[in-house]
Design a protein that fits this description.
The complex is a heterodimer of chains A (113) and B (121). By secondary structure, chain A is an all-beta fold. In chain A, the strands form three sheets. In chain A, strands 2, 6, 7, 8, 11, 12 and 13 form a seven-stranded mixed β-sheet that branches. A four-stranded antiparallel β-sheet of chain A has the order 1-3-10-9, with no helix packed on it. In chain A, strands 4-5 form a two-stranded antiparallel ribbon. In chain A, a hairpin with a 6-residue loop joins strand 11 and strand 12. Chain A starts with a strand and ends with a strand. With 121 residues, chain B is mainly beta. In chain B, 0% of the residues lie in helices and 48% in strands. Chain B is built from no helices and eleven strands. In chain B, the strands form two sheets. In chain B, strands 2, 4, 5, 6, 9, 10 and 11 form a seven-stranded mixed β-sheet that branches. Chain B is globular and about 40 Å long. The chains are: A mainly beta (113), B mainly beta (121).
Chain lengths: 113, 121
């Protein structure tokens, strides 16, 4: 199975500051034939189900604010929140959907300083 | 608007069985693969099972293989998860989620609110 490892486990950031979450996969999740990274980011607010933010490593879902961006390729990926807002307090998960079984990172909890 | 509503969770004794349902609306259910994901209390997300749009292809996590069965009724826009031989470590909130693909890409673009399954004596 592909192991997804996120860092840090938790992050405390001031309002308006940048938050950066890293995700590393134990195997490459890039399809050379399609030139796509099978990597997604989800946001889970307290008491709510996860919500898909970003697919294919860097494609924002419709309605997701542009302060959220994804980058990276191969085995190393990053989710960046450019200017943290109060409503961004949540746990963020990366997920590889390159192969069976799909696997998630352990989650990164983002809080406000 | 896509809406997924899970039901069927509850308290069950170890070794017991439970059937979860997920009622879908707001999209053409028969055209999309569907997935169950679970989350143990205070823990992360764990993929459980995926079923193709046609219902022909099924995929299971090793932890549930042989005990859980995923199925769907496309005429009723409903996804099911039959869970047998339940164990304490199956205790979790179970989410159903929609896949943007027919065959099952494992990308999950919409999620339900979840239903809690507690396995305890």
């Amino acid at each position: 199975d592909i192991v997804m490892t996120q860092s840090p486990d938790s992050l405390i950031v001031s309002l308006g500051e940048r938050a950066t979450i890293n995700c590393k996969s134990s195997q490459i999740v890039l399809s050379n034939s399609k030139n796509k990274n099978y990597l997604a980011w989800y946001q889970q607010k307290p008491g709510q189900p996860p919500k898909l933010l970003i697919s294919w490593a860097s494609t924002r879902e419709s309605g997701v604010p542009d302060r959220f961006s994804g980058s990276g390729s191969g085995t190393d990926f990053t989710l960046t929140i450019s200017s943290l807002q109060a409503e961004d307090v949540a746990v963020y998960y990366c997920q590889q959907y390159y192969t069976t079984p799909p696997t998630f990172g352990q989650g990164t909890k983002v809080e406000i300083k | 608007e896509v809406h997924l509503l899970e039901s069927g969770g509850g308290l069950i004794q170890p070794g017991g069985s439970l059937r979860l349902s997920c009622a879908a609306s707001g999209f053409t259910f028969r055209n999309y693969a569907m997935t169950w994901v679970r989350q143990a209390p205070g823990k992360g997300l764990e993929w459980v099972s995926t079923l193709s749009a046609s219902g022909v292809s099924t995929y299971y996590a090793d932890s549930v293989k042989g005990r859980f069965t995923i199925s769907r009724d496309n005429s009723m826009n409903t996804l099911f998860l039959q869970m047998n031989s339940l164990r304490a470590d199956d205790t979790a909130v179970f989410y159903c989620a929609k896949d943007p693909d027919r065959s099952g890409s494992y990308l999950l673009d919409h999620w339900g609110q979840g239903t809690l399954v507690t396995v305890s004596s």
